[in-house]
What does this fold into?
Amino acid sequence: MSSAGSDGLTVVKCGGAAGVDPARVCADVAALVKAGGRVVLVHGGSAELEQLAGRLGVPQRSITSRSGVTSRYTDDATLEVLTLTLAGQVKPALLVELAGHGVPAVGLTGIDAGLLRARRKTAIRARVDGRTVLVRDDHSGRIDEVDPAALKVLLDAGITPVVSPPALAEDGRPVNVNADRAATAIAVALGADRLVFLTAAPGVLADPSDESSRLDRYELPAEGTPPGVGGGMVVKLIAAREALEGGVREVLIADGRAEDPVRRALTGLSTAVVIDPEAGTGSDAGSEDGSDAGSVAGSVAGSEAGGADHE
It folds into this structure.
């Protein structure tokens, strides 16, 4: 059992998949803050992005890696919609929820104060709309630097930071980055005690069709693709491994649809992720975002449908 008391810092990643309840997440974050906890809330918004893109008539396309992991194809128009969605719709709604619970909060993207810097992906070999192509116009990147100064100032002032993509690339332009990886990078940079991923399922499932099959513990291999998972859970577990390797003491994957989702996770209603050097490895992870891994095998199912949550 964990504790998010005043002696530690918790980074919470609120998944962007449909079903995750932002109001419940914010109410629980507020309860932790009022109890003396320090929390950074990192969010996605893929469901809202899809809705806004539909209203604006911006077609959405996907990139599928050789391993079958799917992510968003971020062209110029989609990057604009992503920024509008995360900074102009999802983030303000989270700030309003926190304010309603009496918790002062400030919203940031990775661009603000140079918080998240990323290396732009110049070319990706992937399947786009069913065809294998070399993608050169995807505005996505991998985080390679975090400047936590602004976050530390806010936390020291008793203000809860609320953070999302995009990040700033080396060419000075914004790029989409995986929000799970953003949460990990922030947790490591701040020396957080724990990182909680809230998703649209109870955790990592032994049987994808049975939500009661949540694993209490998932043992990650020290390298390679996490075995037996698919979809967005592959990237979540790679992000979890990076967090643990970076010094974060505890990483949990839990149900963002439940009442008191963070506190439930901390009391054991979650999947605790650990690194086991003796665990069997999957194929080599391949690409730098973990999404170009080899084929996935095994009996443990990823608990979040619909591919990688890059927003």
Notes: The longest helix spans residues 76-100. Helices lie at 22-34, 46-56, 76-100, 149-156, 179-190, 232-245, 261-266.
